[in-house]
Amino acid sequence: MALNIPGLVSLSVFFTFTLAAGIWASWKSRKKQQNQNPTEMAIVGGRNINVCIGLFTATATWVGGAYINGTAEIVYLPSKGLLWVQAPVGFALSLLIGGFFFVNPMRSKNYMTVMDPLQEAYGNMMGSLLFIPPLLGEVFWFAAILASLGATMRVILDIGGSLAITLSACTVILYTLLGGLYSVAYTDVIQLVFVTLSLLVCTPFALINSATESIYYTATHKHYQDPWIGKIEKQYLGRWLDDFFYLVLGSIPWQTFFQRVLSSASPSQARFISYLSGVGCFLMAIPSVFIGAVAASTDWNQTSYGLPSPLERGESAMILPFVLHYLCPAYISIAGLGAIAAAAMSSADSALLSAGSMFAHNIYRKNLRKKATDREVLWAMRTSMLVFGAGAASLAFYSNSVYDLWFLSGELVYALLFPQLCCALFAPSSNTYGSAAGFLVGLLLRLLAGEPALKIPPIICYPVCSLLDGSYVQLFPYKTFTMLFTLGTIIAVSYLATVLFQRNLLPRRWDVCNVLGETSTHTPLHQMDKQTGLQTGVPCFPPEGKATNRAPTFMMFSSHVVFSPQKRQINV
Predict the structure, then answer these.
(1) 570 strand-pairing partners
(2) Full residue range of the structural domain in which residue 458 is found
(3) Which bin fits 87, alpha (ψ -120 to 50), beta or left (φ > 0)?
(4) By the 8 A CB rule, do 228 and 82 touch?
(5) How far apart are CA 462 and CA 452, in angstroms?
(6) Residue at 92 is within a domain
(7) Any long-range contacts for 371-380 (C-beta under 8 Å, 24+ apart)?
(8) 546 lies in a domain?
(9) Are 360 and 493 within one domain?
């Protein structure tokens, strides 16, 4: 196939237009930045993003290239079908639940990132450990998005996937670096409008193609392959429920979600944006469902693609670009390519900004450089985005299944971070001991369950663990079980630690995390300054000739100590 010059030109125009919009938004944010904190402007847009822009950017964040590609792919697969397309409903419910339960406590306290309540409840060091799962999730998400875009460009434009991934990553990184959330939000508006219009234009042409049987007939009758409605066999019900709860609850503790609601002017606006974006996310999946149904109803021998079919060639992950290219006129398929590019960029910039925001605000400022200026934190954020973006682009070159990579990216967040966030916001009795125990137990359970996609055999075989295609597959809802076990561990160990110290079953000088918050054992810093002459924020070792009532074992735990207002822990 020859190089598609018109498609390449139109895509170049779209990329240029998006970049120009991002640069314009960056200039606009700098004008508003004169009287505001530059870091706050970059991370949460100065908390003055209006409702319309917030709704567009929140919806576009979830409607990415992996979302629309993956939805079409699952509908097309004979072993799956529509009943296994859980992301649209799962994401919609996630945004509704997040808006109802989580938005108000997060926005009312003016948090900057999803990690803030975790560090407030469990300390900076524990918060740094909890930063690892969402970081991996954002990087893998970015990689999945770029991989789907590269596959699409390779099919429709006949250019190398690596070139497409590189160009897309460079464009996203550039305008995200320049304008932060403002650039991301305003480009999301353009991208979501383009995705909506393009898919609405392409879908009818695919439906009326002469090589395609009626999707209403093939939904329930076997024609070229099994009905695309699909079915859920009894033995796979546990796995279906596990995946569904993973999407609903595991999609909440992401910085990409909270970054939008935390940028709103008020908690009520934040909830409104969360509710409506859930509806928009569901509606945006409908064209992809139709495209997947069309692919399952097509005689590919009547197209220039020929036989064997995409399924038999192992190319089902690219079914959406195949439908656009082989079942739509050339000028229409170009519009469809633009839709996928826009969807990819709208989610990629969100993932990149989220990872950089958490690193700069929660790791660099609160751990590495506690006295860093706002300008220094801003540059740390930009540098980290460059590193994370380059790493994600590298991973995208090795992606074989878009949907698998997208689905796997949040498992650690679901199993480890969601229970931690719930306890930090809704269980005041939880403490650092419980958080650490929950993290270790949850991580161990998840790793021992194995991962077929990565060819990691399970050590723990849960009930109905089956051998399929040479790999053991857990049909038991082990992800949800791990999440619930982690939640129970946090609560139980927190309670046990409190009881042991309260009843003096353990010496209180061993309470290095200060779960009791008693001044008789641990002197507050402002009092210790007067008694010992120590300055807050400097190493807490007594100067020569000065006595202090702080236990030596406690002083050896950390060289920097800051007490939390909740008195549940120390921030180290």
Answers:
(1) 563
(2) 427-515
(3) alpha
(4) yes
(5) 14
(6) yes
(7) 371/537, 374/37, 374/38, 374/39, 375/38, 377/39, 378/38, 378/39, 378/42
(8) no
(9) no
- Do 323 and 455 fall into the same domain? no
Q: How far is CA 352 from CA 18, 30, 392, in A?
A: 16, 20, 9
Handedness of CA 166, 170, 173, 176 (dihedral sign): negative
Assign 3-class secondary structure to 32-79. Answer: HHHHCCHHHHHHHHHHCECHHHHHHHHHHHHCCHHHHHHHHHHHHCCC
* CB atoms inside a 10 Å sphere around CB 421: 21
Dihedral Cα 8, 327, 144, 276, nearest 10 deg? 100
Q: What is the maximum span of the chain, computed from C-alpha positions, in angstroms?
A: 92
- For residue 160, give both structure tokens: 């190398």
- Strand-strand pairing, 471-474 and 570-571: unpaired
Question: Under a CB-based contact definition with an 8 Å cutoff, are residues 51 and 272 in contact?
Answer: yes
Give the position of tokens 């450990």. 129
Q: Which two tokens stand for residue 273?
A: 């944006």
How many Cβ atoms are within 10 Å of 243's Cβ, its own excluded? 20
The CATH number given to whatever domain includes residue 320 is: 1.20.1730.10
pLDDT, averaged per 10 consecutive residues of the chain (572 residues), comes to 74 84 84 76 89 93 84 94 95 96 95 95 93 86 79 74 82 87 89 88 93 95 93 93 94 94 93 96 96 96 92 89 89 79 83 94 93 92 93 77 60 93 96 97 92 82 83 90 97 96 91 73 40 41 42 37 42 42
279: which residues sit within 8 A by CB, 6+ positions away? 92
CB-based contacts of 155-158 (< 8 A; 24+ apart in sequence)? 155/318, 155/321, 155/322, 155/325, 156/4, 156/7, 156/321, 156/324, 156/325, 156/333, 156/334, 156/336, 156/337, 157/3, 157/4, 157/7, 157/8, 157/11, 157/337, 158/1, 158/2, 158/3, 158/4
